[in-house]
Amino acid sequence: MNANLVVDAKGLSCPMPIVKAKKGMDTLESGQIMMLETTDKGSVNDFQGWVKQTGHELLNVQEDNGVFRFFVKKS
Amino acid sequence: MADKSTMVIFSGDLDKAIASFIIATGSAAMGSDVTMFFTFWGLNILRKSEKVPAKKTFLENMFGRMMPRGPEQLGLSKMNMGGLGSKLMKRIMRKKNIATLQELMETAQDLGVKIIACSMSMDVLGITEAELIDGIEYAGVATYLAEADQAKLNLFI
């Protein structure tokens, strides 16, 4: 999946992944896709809540060796 | 229109201040307009770390000396052990790459979190505007209540 923006939040803990996600989303246009990488275990649940609240669309979540990749489409 | 969150920060304890700013930055990252209202001991979180000369009465001076100046000097609400607990907690948090209170405060201001200092308790504790960090507002209970009335989330910490 191609992303318009890649945000690296690896190694950061709550609340920094969603802060980085918000700042990343602010730079995108509607319909563009952001890929965000985290290592914080809580972020899997956190991003479900974050997209629900912000109205963006969570397209896909992948896990690879403890790194979570979230693909989010801007609403 | 964006949702609103309001918080009253009454406590000047390090752990409670960190929790407050995690919730505030998190809420702002979720797209809410956040207002933090600092009163009584909570005002110490907003104090600049350096001494700022100000004209004060004897009692105000004593208060000013005994209260912590800014995030670096705050103690824990439990197991502070004369400041040792607070030092240990900060070391553990640094090791685990958790944002410091200073970083959280900068992030909050960067995200547009509104920080309001209660002017009445500033008066009681003898804290002047020059002693508090920049980029904040000064108001009273009516301002807080007007904001809280429209908020979906309201916390007293």
UniProtKB/TrEMBL annotation, chain A:
<protein>
    <recommendedName>
        <fullName>UPF0033 domain-containing protein</fullName>
    </recommendedName>
</protein>
<dbReference type="InterPro" id="IPR036868">
    <property type="entry name" value="TusA-like_sf"/>
</dbReference>
<dbReference type="InterPro" id="IPR001455">
    <property type="entry name" value="TusA-like"/>
</dbReference>
<dbReference type="Pfam" id="PF01206">
    <property type="entry name" value="TusA"/>
</dbReference>
<comment type="similarity">
    <text>Belongs to the sulfur carrier protein TusA family.</text>
</comment>
<feature type="domain" description="UPF0033">
    <location>
        <begin position="7"/>
        <end position="31"/>
    </location>
</feature>
Automatic annotation (TrEMBL), chain B:
<dbReference type="InterPro" id="IPR032836">
    <property type="entry name" value="DsrE2-like"/>
</dbReference>
<feature type="transmembrane region" description="Helical">
    <location>
        <begin position="20"/>
        <end position="46"/>
    </location>
</feature>
<dbReference type="InterPro" id="IPR027396">
    <property type="entry name" value="DsrEFH-like"/>
</dbReference>
<keyword id="KW-1133">Transmembrane helix</keyword>
<dbReference type="Pfam" id="PF13686">
    <property type="entry name" value="DrsE_2"/>
</dbReference>
<keyword id="KW-0472">Membrane</keyword>
<keyword id="KW-0812">Transmembrane</keyword>
<protein>
    <recommendedName>
        <fullName>NADH dehydrogenase</fullName>
    </recommendedName>
</protein>
